[in-house]
Specification:
single chain; alpha+beta; 3 domains; four-stranded antiparallel β-sheet; 18 helices; 46% helix; 12% strand; disordered N terminus
Length: 391
């Protein structure tokens, strides 16, 4: 049902009043026009002395759309079509603005429903430029390729098709810039255009990974991938390349997480064999070689605490990688350059911890269990609080 049809079917009151006095501890009311009014979702706040503030186009009243409920239990969202609410839910921090933009015209609703990502990008552009509703309506009337050009993307029908194919999940405001940055890169678009089922996570992955790119890499990610999954993938790719001496061709046949894990594990075995995993004597010999190459092992940048201790020698670094079945020994160059330092956690969980020197301070880099498994949330919290305490 269209917005105009909804108006004719339900002739309700013009606005909803929300008394915020108990929340803010001073007398004030928020008055918001409902979806069926002549100026949907326009708002003002008032007290006994009169109007305190009025919202302009794409300016939220400071409260999320879905929290606005009056004393009678009437919610502002009750009369808004579900299709529009679904789009608003994709941007929780801009839900009010998204709904208000949809209320501008039938053309806005049509664009929102047919190409939600393009619509959200256009709303964000309009909000940042502080454009009027009239100018927004003018933008909505443009060809989609022209809209792309306005928001900073190539004015290409292929990009329009690409945007329409991307399945969305809830976005944070700053991720909209990431979307534009990723789609502006031809090499990213080339990969994306050949992938059968695109999700926003593919853009997130490409921006995190950047290089190298290969045909099967997008199969490592799907709509269920979490931020932790993306971090794990980027780490595994980096470590795999480190152990392959930067040879990107080793990744050419990788098109699943299992294949990446198996490749990584093979390289770990090879790395540890070549660096003295098989005997204490071999490890001592390799450690002596590293000492000759890099000099003395650096001093720890952060004091130890109970359960977390620094590795104090090149030999200890090699033994950590061998016992934990990962490639921490490959970090020897970064350690020698004071760009990284390795600790071990003995309890509450056995972990290898890397700290990285960024922006003139030490931060948590990677935290790994045996075979590169992720740590428990509790152990990771211990690590983070330890670093925050001393840096």
């Amino acid at each position: 049902m269209t917005k105009s049809a909804l108006k004719n079917a339900h002739p309700p009151e013009n606005h909803v009043v929300f008394d915020l006095s108990a929340i803010l501890n001073y007398p004030i009311q928020l008055v918001v026009n409902n979806w069926h009014s002549d100026r949907p979702l326009r708002w003002l706040s008032k007290n006994d002395d009169g109007i305190v503030a009025e919202g302009s186009f794409l300016e939220a009243p400071g409260l999320p759309l879905f929290t606005l409920e009056d004393c009678k239990g009437t919610r502002l969202s009750d009369d808004i079509p579900e299709g529009i609410l679904a789009i608003a839910r994709l941007m929780p921090a801009m839900d009010f603005e998204i709904a208000q933009a949809c209320a501008a015209s039938e053309a806005a609703v049509q664009l929102a429903e047919s190409s939600p990502l393009l619509f959200i990008l256009l709303v964000n552009y309009t909000r940042r430029q502080q454009l009027s509703v009239e100018k927004f309506e003018h933008l909505i009337a443009l060809r989609r390729t022209a809209i792309l050009e306005r928001i900073g993307l190539p004015a290409s029908k292929s990009v329009v098709r690409l945007i329409n194919r991307i399945e969305l999940s809830p976005l944070l405001p700053w991720e909209l810039d990431d979307v534009v940055r990723s789609l502006a890169q031809p090499e990213f678009r080339s990969l994306l255009s050949h992938h059968p089922s695109l999700h926003l996570n593919h853009l997130r992955f490409l921006l995190r990974q950047r290089q190298p790119l290969w045909p099967g890499m997008l199969h490592l990610v799907d709509k269920h991938s979490s931020a932790l999954d993306l971090t794990w993938l980027c780490r595994m790719i980096r470590d795999t390349l480190n152990m392959a001496a930067g040879n990107e061709r080793v990744l050419a046949g990788v098109s699943s997480r299992q294949a990446l894990q198996e490749l990584h594990d093979r390289l770990v075995e090879r790395f540890n064999r070549s660096n003295g995993r098989n005997s204490a004597a071999e490890r001592v010999a390799v450690a002596a070689k590293l000492a000759k190459e890099h000099g003395n092992y650096p001093a720890p940048p952060i004091p130890a605490i109970e359960g977390i201790e620094p590795l104090m020698s090149w030999l200890a670094l090699l033994e950590e990688g061998a016992s934990m079945h990962h490639c921490v020994g490959a970090y020897h160059i970064s350690i020698a350059n004071n760009e990284a330092f390795i600790y071990r956690m003995t309890h509450p969980e056995r972990l290898t911890i890397s700290l990285e020197y960024r922006n003139n301070r030490w931060v948590v880099g990677e935290v790994r269990r045996y075979c590169n498994a992720n740590p428990s949330p509790g152990a990771l919290d211990v690590v983070r609080r330890w670093v925050e305490r001393f840096r």
